[in-house]
Prior knowledge:
With 376 residues, this protein is α/β, with parallel strands linked by helices. It has helices at residues 3-6, 29-39, 45-59, 71-87, 96-101, 117-121, 139-145, 171-180, 198-205, 232-241, 256-271, 274-291, 326-335, 358-375; strands at residues 13-14, 64-68, 103-107, 124-128, 150-155, 185-188, 210-214, 226-230, 298-303, 314-319, 340-341, 343-345, 348-351.
Amino acid sequence: MNVYDELKIKKLINAAGTYTVIGGSKMSETTLEKMNEAARSYVEIKDLQKAIHERLALLTNNESCVISAGGIVGIYLCLASAISMKYKKQFKHLKKSEIEKAEIIMFKAHRNPYDRSVNLIGCKLVELGYANTIDIVDEETLENAFTENTCAVFYLPSTSGGWVAPGALDLQTTIQVSKKHHVPVIVDAAAQLPPKSNLWYFTEELGADAVIFSGGKYLKGPQSTGVILGKKDLLDWVNLHNFPNYDIGRMHKISREELVGIYNAVKEYVQSDEDEERNQANWMVNDLIQEFSKSNCFSFEDSYPNEAGQPMSRAKMIIHHSDISLEHVRDYLLSKEQPIYTKIDNGFIYINPMMLSIDDYRIVKNSLLELQEEYK
Ligand SMILES: *Cc1c(COP(=O)(O)O)cnc(C)c1O
C-alpha cells in the first residue's frame, strides 16, 4: 500500500509552483536512486561534503560551494559567518557583546518572512529606505550606512513582476559601494531559478560574496537542502560553522542521502535543457488560453514572469461568470479525485505549469472543462 494512502493523506497535483507547503518540487528518479544508494553505506561526512562542494563549485562556475540544511539555514550561516570573518573568530568564540554590536544592512523593501535568521543571530539589522518607490534609496544613503560594525549587506534580488517590493538600490551599485567598504554582500536568491545562469550571475558576474538557492525548489533536490555558492573567503567560514562541526550549524543536520541528493539534482539541473522546459510551459499556457477562449465562465491570460519574478509563464484565470468565486475554483480543483493544488495570488488564481508533467496537465485541463460544464 502506498504510504500516503496508509496515512490517508491526499496526493496532490502541483499546479501552483515550487511552494514549500506542498513539498516544493519532485526529485528525479535518478536522484531518488542515488539517495537510496547513499543511505546504504557509512561514509566520513566531512569527506563527502568536501567532494560534493568541490564538484558543485566547478559545475556552477563558482569559487566555492557549501550545502546547508535548507535555504534559510544557508542565509543564517552566511550572515553569521560574515560576523566571524570580520572578527576573525569562529562564531562559538565570539563574545555576546561582539555579536550584539555587529550590523547587517538590508533594504526595507527586501524585508520578508525568510529574514528571521537575522534575529536568530542576535546582531543589529540596519534597514534602509522604504518598501515603495516614493523615495528610492540612493547611493549616498547606502554609503552613509556603513560603520565600523558593519559585517554584511543582505540583498533580495527580484525581477520586475515578482513579489519583492521596489524601493531598494540595484544590486550592482550595492555591490560596488559595499566593496569599497570591504563588506561582503550576501544574496538570497532561493527561488531565483530559472535561468540557470543565475547560479553564477550574482557571484561571478556581479561580484556578490555569496548567493543562496533553495535545494528543494526549482533545483529539484531534497526539500531540506540549500545551496550556497560564492567566494572562498566567506564560504570557508561557513564551512567551519556548518554541520557536523560543533558550532551554530550543528543543529541543522544534513544527512548523507540529502547531500548526495542535492549533488545529483544540481548536476541534472546544470545539464537540463532550459529551452525545452520553457517551451513545454508555454505550450500548456497557450493550450489553456485557446481551449477557454470562447468560454463565458472563465478564460486565461499569459502571465509573465512568474510569482518569484522568474522567466516562466503562468496561466492567469479571468473569471467571467458571476456565480464563480476564486475560492470556489480553488476548492473545486482540490476536491477532485486527483486533487489539484493552485494558489490565489493578488486576487487571481493561476495555473502554474512549472511543476506540471504533461499527464498532470491533462488532468488539470479536464478538471477545468468539468468545472466549466457545471456553469454552462
Ligand atoms: C523559499 C525561499 C527561502 C527559503 O528557502 P528554504 O529552502 O525553503 O529554506 C528564502 N528566501 C526566499 C526569497 C525564498 O523564496
